[in-house]
Amino acid sequence: MDIKLRIKTVLNEAEIYRNQGLIAEAYDRYQNAVNLINSIEKLKNKDSLLKAIHEKILALNYTKEKVDKGPKTPELSKKAQDLIKNLFTFSENKDEDAAALEGAVTLAKFGQFDRALSDLNALLEKDSMRVDAAKNILRCYMASASVEDAVAQYKKWYTGDLFQPQQLETVRHYLEEILQKRGIEADLPSAITVEDTLDETLAVEDTVAEESEEEFLDITSIGITFERGARKGKMVELDVNFQSGNMLSLIIAKKDQDLLEGLDEGVKLKNVQFFSPIAIFNGVGTVVSKTQIKTGPKQGDYCLDIRISST
Amino acid sequence: MAIFNLKKREIECKVVYYGPGRCGKTTNLEYIFSSYKKQVKGEMVSINTEGDRTLFFDFLPMGLGQIRGCDVRVQLYTVPGQVKYSSTRKLVLRGVDGIVFVADSLEVRREKNMLSLKDLQANLKDYGKSIFKVPLVMQYNKRDLAEQGIPLMPIEQMERDLNRQLKVPAFEASAVVGTGVGNTLKECLKLTLQALQREFKWAK
User: Fold this and answer.
1) Min distance A98 CA to chain B CA atoms (Å)
2) How high is the pLDDT of residue A202?
3) What does residue B98 show for φ and ψ, rounded to 5 degrees?
4) E-assigned strand segments in chain B
5) Class of residue A297 by CB neighbours under 10 A (exposed 0-12, middle 13-18, buried 19+)
6) String of DSSP letters for A173-235
7) What pLDDT digit, counting tens, does each position of A23-47 carry?
């Protein structure tokens, strides 16, 4: 083929590829044309032809840059976002909140993070949706912004009072796993640590209670004045079979049904006399449990646990 | 996945136009939108483009009327063809009932065609579907460019490259002028509805 005709053919191809939006292919053809032109020493209008091609190449480079650097997922109009939610939320969930969550997740999948975050944040107010909404908020931050933003959001929740400790702990585990998978170390304070502190406080209180247990006098028997039942108004003295701090255990024979009638679980005994080897004092107690003994010599009798509330 | 409402005797299915970037998927839908007014049931929506590149998808709802007592509605979609939009492509493909694979006849796009078909196979597999079982039609687009002296692949070569194992119906087309667009869609709808009929034991 005549070289001039070849140049013409190559330039024609380049032009059509450019019109088709095939940037790389057009670029390749223009370069091919430049090489062909340069191979001819005495070509008429050589410089102007090369200049024209150079301008075409520059324009292609500009288009390529625009395409390459353009946002992968630009924020769409609300109408378009609603259409995406409508077309790509597949579950036919009747629950309004669950459907809203699915819609927000769909938007996030299509890169519509601003709207997704807005919808998910609204769902944080719903207790049943809170954890799932939080997880997806973190995913949005990691996809659209940065890991640091996700961690900062978690810490914000941690210092706030929206989440219950267990909810926050679930969210923390979720974030921690993702970060671990990405090989990122981050200090994520645990909500459970607060509970642990509470547990420690309780443990201290238990110790105090144990110490105070030792301060309780040994009670040998108690006198209960009944406020109801067959023995209403009468005081009955009962032996204490076992004592652990302020908890007293008594055995009441099954034949004493009239006694048992007034001593159901939870009954508060407002007028109790506590007898110890060194003193007698009045106080208040509560029936904590009433259990029938199933085996042994006392089978059929009742074991009564009474906690001394105040003396 | 097609939505089949037994009570209302309605069926709605999803057909996706798949293929490499710039192969003419959107042009197919544009031609359908302008030429099948009676069947088109709403606007064609092109969700954002960069220049004329599809970034998200195109959507065109159609109604095929009653087929054996059932109202048949079809949603046509295109996927973004550029490689970097793989996640969106996969999302759009979800729940697909029938596929038109639009291949670019330009010689320079041979490899892109094959990569796109491979991408389709992988995405279908992720959804638990086999490219050998899904209703699929091949379209060899841009045949008109031969007249402008642009090197195109012979149909035999495209068949060898893309359809040697699949052996699905294939159509030559020029979406920009409409040649082959209707035939491609009709064949795809036929295969899709036949598959749904088998699946749902519908229309018996």
Assistant:
1) 20
2) 57
3) -150, 150
4) 3-5, 10-18, 45-50, 53-67, 70-78, 98-104, 136-141, 170-172
5) exposed
6) HHHHHHHHHTT-------HHHHHHHHHHHHHHHHHHHHHHHHHSPPP-EEEEE-SSSTTTT-E
7) 999 999 999 999 999 998 888 889 9
Owner of token pair 């599809």: B54
Name, in order, each residue with C-beta under 8 angstroms of B172's C-beta and a sequence gap of 6 or more. B140, B143, B155, B179, B180
Using CB atoms, which residue from A16, A80, A87 is nearest to B145? A16
How far, in Å, CA of A248 to CA of A308, rounded? 8
Yes or no, beta carbons of B47 and A109 under 8 Å apart? no
Q: Which CATH superfamily is domain B3-200 in?
A: P-loop containing nucleotide triphosphate hydrolases (3.40.50.300)
- Which chain A residue is nearest to residue B3, measuring alpha carbons? A90
**Residue B115 scores a pLDDT above 70:** yes
CA–chain centroid gap for A278, Å, is: 58
Dist. CA A108–CA A131, nearest whole Å: 17
Residue spans per domain, chain B: 3-200
Considering CB atoms only, which of A9, A72, A109 is closest to B84? A72
* B95: CB partners within 8 A, 6+ apart: A90, B1, B14
Amino acid at A179: L
Choice among A32-41, A68-77, B78-87, B134-143 with the minimum mean pLDDT: A68-77
Q: Which CATH number fits domain A221-310: 2.40.10.220, 3.30.565.10, 1.20.120.640, 1.10.630.10?
A: 2.40.10.220
In chain A, what percentage of residues exceed pLDDT 90? 46
Provide, as residue numbers in chain A, all residues whose Cβ is less than 8 Å from the Cβ of B91.
Answer: 88, 109-110
Identify from A66, A110, A112, A115 which residue to disrupt to test chain B contact, counting B C-beta atoms within 10 A and taking the largest count.
A110
The answer to whether the beta carbons of residues A290 and A265 sit under 8 Å apart is: yes
